[in-house]
Amino acid sequence: MTTIRFENVWKEYDERVVLEQVNLSLADHEFLVIIGPSGVGKTTLLRMLLSQEQPSRGRILLDGEPIATEPTADRGVVFQRYSVFPHRTVLGNVMMGPQWAGAPFLGRFFGARRRALEERAMALLTRVGLGEHAHKYPAQLSGGMQQRLALAQALIMRPKVLLLDEPFGALDPGTRKSMHELVGELWEENRMTIVMVTHDLPEAFLLGTRVIAVDRRRNDPQAPERFGATIVSDFEAKCRSVRESRAFEAERERVRLALLAGTSPAEDAPAVPAFETALVKD
Amino acid sequence: MRRIINYAPRPGVRLILALLPFIAVLAIYILASNARLAVEPADKLMPSFASFWTTMVRMATTVDKATSQYLLWWDTWLSLQRLFLGLGISALLGLVLGIIVGFVPYLRATFEPFFAAFSLIPPLAVLPILFILFGLGEASKIVLIVFGIAPFIIRDVMLRVSAIPAEQIIKAQTLGASTWQMIAGVVLPQVMPRLIDSVRLSLGAAWLFVIAAEAITSEGGLGYRIFLVRRYLAMDVILPYVIWITLLAFLMDYALRRLAVAAYPWDQIKAA
Predict the structure, then answer these.
(1) How buried is residue A48: exposed, middle or buried, by Cβ count under 10 Å (0-12/13-18/19+)?
(2) What are the residue ranges in chain A where pLDDT is below 50?
(3) Are residues B127 and B199 in the same domain?
(4) CA B219 from chain center: how many Å?
(5) Are residues B90 and B193 in the same domain?
(6) Do B175 and A79 lie within an 8 Å CB cutoff?
(7) Where does the sequence pass through the membrane (chain B) (predicted)?
(8) DSSP state, A270?
């Protein structure tokens, strides 16, 4: 369970107000998309959630606790560019997080631990479609493949929240489409919360379960920096009860078919990896 | 008629073109030398290649009476020792200080202006101070090299550290990395190719300081020999020594370049 709350968050740089009165409450397993015009503070909102920047007023709560004042492993991130390490191979990139967590001084695993991690990383890479590129360097991959790698690298840490800052902004339309599918599926499979910033409206409504628009409510032509942006609209793009009943129907159908076929439903892997099965899933 | 920048030589032509200036310089020397030797067979200013050869063979294969050493090898050994010690200490200082100061904002704010000012001190101007402080022995020569090139390497490494995209550092933190882990796992490996480049660029300066220090006080060394035999106008020693130093510098540069290619393949891919 992961919930996010923004409580009256403001962001000011000296005299300039960027964001004002941001109040938001996000339930578990939502796909929140933040849209809005350029330069209005979408990314600032995401950066505050990442603790790359601190709110000037108000606070941000993750599961009811104020978030750490620096980036930590509970919030994963994929930026538009530069979020993979050019000096490590694809496999090495994915293995970095767990190795840092488990080997404070050397940052490297050896022997059986390493093999176990390699297996996990390879499974994840195969899932995002980079299985056969495991031993290449990021510079040898296309833009879309680099973003897949960045996703895998973040996912292996099993963050509570995954933050995406215009992750498909630099990709061509075809690649973008396949990335949409991948991110949608990963969101379902890992049952996590995703917060994404984009300026692409169709993309926002395709992926998001909840879409918020950030813009200035008031504008003073004499002093445009006087008023900041805030959440001006809040759409429930995919209704939660519909989503859950769909998942439930799918699960019921699976059990029914299994019973018809005369096998015990528990023996099969669940077709819809939702509910408790997904929570214990590695 | 196209613009001149749009004419590019073919690979074979390129090789010939690259050799041309070398051949031209050699030819001019031989012609001038022959002309002078024809007038005065004992001319010391532009000796023939034959006398270069006999002098070098003598210096490389006969034991000198005063020092009981093979002079060429003895000089080379002394100079390279100083050069490598100076370069090694500078590279190490540059790496450690450059990364720590470049990566930690408080240290950066404290030391960056200091390093910037420090790197502007002309090293040769403080050479007398070094002689007073460290004596006339090896220490002052090595300190001079370090003094001359370490500030440059430190600043270069700091620049490289700050050129690492902020996204990577944030990403590393979201993967749970500590400051030490980021230094060892993200910053250091990405700075290493740049450090090698930095050392390559410092080679010329390092040789300058070695020769300058040796010229003033020494018992041996390539620079010392050149300045010693200057009194006798011994161009048959000086010119081959200069070429020998150039060759050594070229070989070091080449070796460092190959090292960078072999040790950091990802950096080559990125550049290409």
Answers:
(1) buried
(2) 267-282
(3) yes
(4) 22
(5) yes
(6) no
(7) 12-32, 83-107, 114-136, 142-161, 199-217, 237-256
(8) P
